[in-house]
Write a structure and sequence with these properties.
Helices cover about 70% and strands about 0% of the residues. By secondary structure, the protein is mostly helical. The chain has a two-stranded antiparallel sheet.
């Protein structure tokens, strides 16, 4: 191995100066970027108050047996001090491995995973189909876009309540099915049809966002790639597979990740469609955590908070593996 020597100083040219200590690096960073630190300081303070404190408080509650009977409360002029105690990881052990673990956690976890996978798949497939349709030169394309975006523009509670009215036993949907001499499901009473209805309503609400995102991605693909593929004799399927899908890779990876996070934590649709205590088998983890903390007596704050920490952990692990998978695929593509 050849080592270059500086003739003037007699030192190796590849020798680097010693790295300063942590205190010195912080001081140098502050002197160099103090203006940037000052600009983001208000955001850091707000995030610390709105996100950091509830998160730390929630993690602490998971290590206690806090409920509505032993927490601090005020009744009239009397203030009752909290009497809950520290119990370590007992809440997590009870949720994950306790005698009722399957009914209270694992059954809802499996349903939440299926709900998320089904909804995101439908969002993407239907959204991509509509985006490709709107990317063509159609008469009245602007009107179609407005109509397809409308479900996203309407407030969620209005959409869900409208679906709830239509899905009632005497609702318009069952009346139409009856007129066609088809079975009339108990959409809001039977477990299978409750889950089917929840996926259907969430698909209705989520497709417009996916469609708009993918439409923007389609319009960013260079049209010369399609022209070159046509000149090479590529079929429509080959152009879709080798031009459209690779061109949508960056947009798809982002919207799928957002779709998974939003759907996994989708509270409003399940809660508004079935109520806080209805359809116990159709409750996903986030609505089940709400039920434990606020929908029963006594309210179990500790286990509700433990569900929140578990949800955060699941999404953090999924996001980490998802990004690693994307990075590996990108390297293979290169």
């Amino acid at each position: 191995m050849t080592v270059a020597i500086d003739r003037a100083t007699g030192e190796r040219r590849d020798e680097r100066p010693p790295r300063p200590g942590l205190g010195q690096r912080l001081k140098n960073g502050y002197q160099r970027y103090w203006y940037a630190y000052a600009m983001i300081a208000p955001v850091v303070v707000v995030l610390g108050v709105l996100v950091g404190y509830p998160l730390v408080r929630g993690v602490y509650l998971t290590l206690t047996d806090a409920n509505s009977l032993n927490s601090a409360r005020t009744i009239g002029v009397n203030h009752i001090e909290a009497t809950y105690k520290f119990i370590g990881l007992d809440n997590y052990q009870d949720i994950l491995f306790g005698p009722t673990a399957y009914d209270r956690f694992w059954s809802h976890f499996l349903w939440t995973v299926f709900w998320t996978a089904a909804c995101v798949t439908l969002h993407y497939v239907i959204g991509l189909g509509l985006a490709m349709m709107l990317d063509q030169k159609l008469r009245g394309r602007t009107v179609y876009r407005l109509l397809l975006v409308l479900p996203w523009a309407v407030p969620t509670f209005v959409t869900v309540f409208s679906w709830r009215i239509m899905l009632a036993d005497s609702g318009v949907l069952n009346q139409v099915l009856g007129a066609l001499h088809l079975p009339q499901p108990a959409w809001l009473e039977d477990t299978f049809w409750q889950r089917f209805a929840a996926i259907m309503v969430n698909t209705w609400c989520g497709v417009p966002f996916m469609m708009l995102s993918l439409l923007g991605g389609l319009q960013s693909i260079d049209s010369s790639l399609y022209e070159a593929a046509e000149m090479d004799g590529a079929s429509a399927w080959q152009r879709f597979r080798h031009v459209t899908l690779p061109g949508l890779r960056s947009v798809s990876s982002t919207v799928v990740l957002l779709g998974v996070i939003w759907t996994f934590n989708q509270f409003a649709i399940i809660f508004l469609l079935f109520g806080p205590t209805g359809a116990p088998d159709a409750q996903i983890l986030v609505t089940w955590a709400y039920f434990l903390g606020f929908g029963q007596q006594p309210r179990d704050f500790a286990q509700s908070a433990a569900y929140g920490v578990l949800l955060l952990s699941i999404l953090t692990v999924f996001t980490s593996f998802y990004f690693r998978w994307l990075k590996r695929n990108d390297q293979l593509a290169v």
